[in-house]
Amino acid sequence: MPNDATLARLTDTSKYTGAHKQRFDEDGKGRGLAGRENVTHHDGSTESAVRSHAIEKTVDEKAHKKSVVKGPLGQQKFGTQADTPISFMIYKNGDKNHKGHKVLLKKHFRNMQQLTDECNKHAAPLTGPIRRFYRPDLKTWVKDLTEFEDGGKYLCVAGENPKDDIEKIPPGFFE
């Protein structure tokens, strides 16, 4: 790797000779096509001491600036960004050995009936299909999809009161 003195000497535009001297202006910025070829402006008049037809620069400095884009473009990784689904655990009422089943509440569940139909496949209570999802306090149940909490635990009940037989509730539900 060259040291700083060598690098400074190689990038000093005042030391450029020949064709390279024409490629840069006094600030060290490139002139574009005007530095590589003999580009002139033809306006029909002759060139004089006051009127030069030589073009100094063909590079538009404003065109090289990055445009500022408002919105989530810089925050997104790749492609379309999906919303993260709410995940929670459901437990089967009446089966104290049930380990629980993780449910992802995605956007394709439009209402509670669709969610209960899906949960019946994995954690249907012994007494019938799921009718309610109780919270760990065993007093309140979920009435709408928006009431589910991320990381929450819910007891699937067919219609019976879960307080009637607490010893049959899975212990993982209360942890």
Main beta sheet, described? 4 strands, mixed
Q: Which CATH architecture of the largest domain is right?
A: Roll
Structural class: alpha+beta
Distance separating the two termini: 60 Å
Quantity of strands, as a count: 4
Low-confidence stretches: none
Helix and strand sequence:
HHHEEHEE
- Our Rg estimate from Cα atoms comes to 37 Å
GO molecular function, one term: tubulin binding
Domain Doublecortin: 86-160
Protein name: Doublecortin domain-containing protein
Region (Disordered): 1-52
Structural overview:
- This protein is an alpha+beta fold and 175 residues long.
- The protein folds into two domains: 4-64, no CATH class; 86-173, Ubiquitin-like (UB roll), CATH 3.10.20.
- The chain is built from four helices and four strands; from the N terminus they run H-H-H-E-E-H-E-E.
- The chain has helices spanning 4-11, 19-23, 33-36, 112-123, and strands at 86-92, 101-105, 132-134, 153-157.
- The chain has a four-stranded mixed β-sheet, with helices on one face.
- A hairpin with an 8-residue loop joins strand 1 and strand 2 (101-105).
- The longest helix has 12 residues, at 112-123.
- Pfam families: DCX, p25-alpha.
- Residues 86-160 form the Doublecortin domain.
- This is Doublecortin domain-containing protein.
- Residues 1-52 are annotated as: Disordered.
- It comes from Chromera velia CCMP2878.
